[in-house]
Write a structure and sequence with these properties.
By secondary structure, the protein is mainly β. The chain has a single domain, classed as Jelly Rolls, CATH 2.60.120. It has no helices and 10 strands. Strand 8 and strand 9 form a beta hairpin.
Length: 154
C-alpha cells in the first residue's frame, strides 16, 4: 500500500543545492529520487515554503541553479509531500550553506503522517544525523541516513 509523507526541510535563510529522498534498495540496486525538482533547475515548484520566501539563484553546488530561503518568522521551512511505501527504507540527503550568525541551525527532517496527503497529526520524524550550526561559506552535506517509516504510517 502506498502512502504519502511530508518531507520537510527546516531552514532559516540558507542556500540549497540538490536534495534527494531516495528509496533504499538491496545491495547492488539503485534507488530512485522521489523528490520532484530536487535541484531547483525548474524553479521552486512543487516545493512549498512556510514562514518565508523561496527563490532560485545562480549559486549551485552542481547544475545551473540553487534555491535560497528568506525567513520572515521565528522558524521557516520548505517541504514537499511524496509517495512512499511503509515497507521500504529511505535516505534523505542534500547540500546547504549556513553562513549567517543569526541562524541557529539548518537540518533535514522527514516527517511521517498517518494521512496520505501529508496533513493532520505527525506520527514521528527523522532529523539529519548532523546539523549545520557554525558559519561557513561553502556547501556542506546533510543526511538523515537510512530510515524506515513507523509501522502506523499509511
Amino acid at each position: 500500500m502506498k502512502a504519502s509523507r511530508a518531507i520537510v526541510l527546516f531552514v532559516l535563510i540558507m542556500l540549497l543545492a540538490s536534495l534527494a529522498l531516495v528509496s533504499v534498495l538491496p545491495a547492488g540496486a539503485q534507488g530512485v529520487n522521489l523528490l520532484q525538482n530536487p535541484s531547483f533547475e525548474d524553479g521552486v515548484d512543487p516545493w512549498q515554503a512556510r514562514g518565508g520566501t523561496l527563490i532560485t539563484i545562480n549559486n549551485p553546488n552542481s547544475g545551473n541553479l540553487a534555491a535560497i530561503f528568506f525567513v520572515n518568522e521565528a522558524e521557516g521551512y520548505i517541504h514537499q509531500t511524496v509517495p512512499v511505501s511503509p515497507e521500504a527504507s529511505y535516505l534523505f540527503f542534500g547540500f546547504a550553506i549556513k553562513d549567517n550568525p543569526n541562524i541557529d541551525n539548518i537540518f533535514l527532517r522527514i516527517s511521517w503522517y498517518e494521512s496520505e496527503d501529508g496533513f493532520g497529526s505527525e506520527i514521528s520524524d527523522n532529523d539529519s544525523i548532523n546539523a549545520l550550526t557554525d558559519d561557513h561559506p561553502q556547501y556542506r552535506p546533510l543526511t538523515t541516513g537510512q530510515v524506515t517509516p513507523p509501522p502506523n504510517a499509511h
